[in-house]
Amino acid sequence: MILGNKWKLKKGFSILLLIGLIFLVGCQTGKDTVQKKSTTSETTMTSLSKEEAIEKTVTPTLFIHGYKGTVNSFKGMLQRLEEQDNGKKELTLYVDANGNVRAEGELSKQATNPMVQVIFEDNENNEWNQTDWIRACLLYLQITYQVDQVNIVGHSMGGVSGLRYLVTYGQDTSLPKVDKFVALGAPFNDFVDDSGQSVTDELTNGPAVVSSRYQDYQTLVGNLPTTTQVLLIAGQISETDVSDGTVPVNSALAVYALIKQHGNEITEQIIQGTNASHSMLHENKEVDQAVNQFLWKTDG
């Protein structure tokens, strides 16, 4: 009888032990499940935060090369921006010497931050003709895709011609308006010797020595829409060489005071180091970041 009771107790204890083990396994499984769900949630939130930081719109951004530029001029930057999912290259516009526009690709009309590369087939022509060619590109986008707003990014002479377009056709309401304008190493004051003036003084008062090109901007700045936001980027390759090796910092920033006094929102940035040389500005990741931030990052 006593033996029987002991056997029953052992059996009961074994059952309780088995139940306990099952309970512990179940808890651990549940814990793992909760942890996996938590990890997934964090990843999603990170992804959402990244997406929210970039504002995707249907507004096309035109990228315009400099003197003697080719399809390779902005090729690397466009690829990097696309790889980072900041924008999507959808269209290339080739403009011949007569201002005729030929297109490769098409705009999707989707909110992809579409990027449009502009190629001047006569890539050694003057800024006045390039101004009209930019107008031809905007007219093409308006007629073909009903585009009513664009951004413009110009390197070197592309920036010079981009600003000349703005002060020439900026008040023409029949054309798409330019929301944002970026100039990379653009010689707005040509190559005059203004080494005696500090950058700080120029940003406040404008250039002390002016070129005929700058004088044109002074005369025409009234046509620049005050709603157009502007970013000027200059390169400085060393402490002793206050230029990008081609364009002086003072020239790249020469129109800052003029445009600010006109009432536009304007920002300037000096990129420093050997990778800030004139031909490397559109290959510089710091420039990529500045362009991306200015064009597409939300304030939040």
TrEMBL record:
InterPro entries: AB_hydrolase_fold (IPR029058), DUF915_hydro-like (IPR010315)
Superkingdom: Bacteria
PROSITE patterns: PROKAR_LIPOPROTEIN
SUPFAM superfamilies with a match to the protein in the record: alpha/beta-Hydrolases
Protein name: Lipoprotein
Lineage: Bacteria, Bacillati, Bacillota, Bacilli, Lactobacillales
